[in-house]
Amino acid sequence: MDFNSRKKKNKNNYDLYNENINIYLEENDNYILDLESKVQTLKLIGSNMRDEVKTSNSLLYNLSDQMDNVNRKLTGVYRNVKNIIKRKVKE
User: Fold this and answer.
1) Which strand (E) or helix (H) includes residue 2?
2) How far apart are CA 78 and CA 85, in angstroms?
3) 24-58 pLDDT per residue, tens
4) Per the database record, which ranges form the T-SNARE coiled-coil homology domain (predicted)?
């Protein structure tokens, strides 16, 4: 085997090595793009969940205030009915 044929054989191995590396790099790039897409999707889901929680908390806070108002009104009505009944009993 002469030097030139050995050099040519080594070059072919080197080319195969580079091709394999390029294939792996391309696969990695595709995995990275896929991962970036999934991260963006999760980020959007998280953002939507945050907005939904804020809206729900606001609705619950308003409902709590309304229930407090209803409770005060019912307490007043109950007191008035109680007073009316006491007056009717005294008569």
Assistant:
1) none
2) 11
3) 999 999 999 999 999 999 999 999 999 999 999 99
4) 22-84
Six-digit token pair at 55? 């809206």
Q: How far is CA 40 from the centre of its chain?
A: 10
Backbone angles phi, psi at 23, to 5 degrees: -65, -45
User: E strands of the chain, at which residues?
Assistant: none
Torsion sign over Cα 38, 33, 36, 25:
positive
Rounded CA-CA distance 71/67 in Å is 6
Confidence check: pLDDT of 7 > 90: no
Region 67-85: mean pLDDT is: 94
